[in-house]
Amino acid sequence: MEYDYVPMPSRRPLKWPNSARVALILTINLEYWDLLKDSSKHHYAGGPPVIPDSVPGNIPDFPNFSWREYGQRVGVWRMIDTFDEAGVPASCTMNAKMGLERRPVIDAVRERNWELVAHNYEQGDLLTNYHFDRQAEANLIDKALGVYEDIVGKPARGWLSSSLRSTTQTADILAERGLIFFCDLMNDEQPYLIRTTSGPIVATPYSVEINDFTFFHRRGMSTTDALEVLKEQFDQLYREGERSGRFMNVGLHPHVAGHPYRIRALREFLQYAKGHEGVWWATREEIASWYLENHESHIPTKAR
Asked: N or C: which end of the chain has fewer CB within 10 A?
């Protein structure tokens, strides 16, 4: 996996379809965590805990497991209702075990024709565990992609690693399997090409800055604070997007953003963004497919 450092002033203006200024994606992460692991080591459950005292994997951590499960039982349905009321789509990530263990959530997403992005097999089994064993990493990816295809009915086109933990070989493995976008790199506000051993794959950046975990659990923001951050981010990107299109991702988790006292931030931000022309409510697959056809007009391929 390789990509070029191309600073913003060295790029040509990015012209989104229909003269859009901002490609806006609100990502709902649909994630399943195993309650138990066959290990006496401390269990990394794939995300910050609400109660920080970790326990071995073979002992149940009910506070953290059930806090996350709240998102599957309650929070995600509040978020789905909020998107339905706004009349805009979400882009959802799905780890394989979420599809196997919490199928009604995935069915609700599919009924709405929302995007589903492959998101590892189980949230706590990070790809970085396999950094020194490429075949083991490939096997885990294949296992996740196989479940995705069985449940969704078509092959996955893109990937977000659980906890954003991937390796230097992940993009190569994904491109070998025909995927066209990769979300783990958070270093840009525009798409760009990553070179792999099987041809290019498009970087469609995720964000830990514009993310409900960062707002509420890392920075201690109020609901109003979070709403103002979303608006500030959108306004600046919208202003800059008049010259060269921008990408705005909002990372959401049902057990965080789906609580009653936080949902207003999502509801009012959707209303706010809808009040602007030139917003592309795109899927990542749409963005990646478009960029593969149009990247030369933005960042020309260097002769190598």
From this structure: C
Cβ distance 206 to 27 under 8 Å?
yes
Overall pTM surpassing 0.90 (yes/no): yes
d(CA 19, CA 237): 14
* CATH of range 12-33+72-297; options 3.40.50.300, 3.65.10.10, 2.60.40.1180, 3.20.20.370: 3.20.20.370
The single-letter DSSP state of residue 51 is S
pLDDT digits (tens, 9 = 90+) for 206-247: 999 999 999 999 999 999 999 999 999 999 999 999 999 999
Instruction: Return the domain boundaries, the chain.
Output: 12-33+72-297
**Cβ neighbourhood burial of 208 (10 Å; 0-12, 13-18, 19+):** exposed
How far, CA to CA in Å, does 6 sit from each of 16, 26, 56, 244, 302? Answer: 19, 26, 44, 15, 11
Per-residue confidence (pLDDT) for residue 46, from 0 to 100: 61
Q: Which of 179, 186, 171 is nearest to 251 (CA)?
A: 186
Query: What are phi and psi for residue 240, nearest 5 degrees?
Result: -70, -30
How many C-beta neighbours within 10 Å does residue 218 have? Answer: 12
CB-based contact 120:161 (threshold 8 Å): yes
**Residue 304 in this model has a pLDDT that exceeds 60:** no
- Residue 29 near residue 119 (C-beta atoms within 8 A): yes
- Span 175-195, average pLDDT: 98
| Cβ atoms 231, 272 nearer than 8 A | yes
Distance CA(229)–CA(269), nearest Å, equals 10
Phi, psi of 159 (to 5 degrees): -150, 135
Q: What span, in angstroms and rounded, lies between the C-alpha atoms of 116 and 107?
A: 11
pLDDT interval class at 53 (50, 70, 90): confident
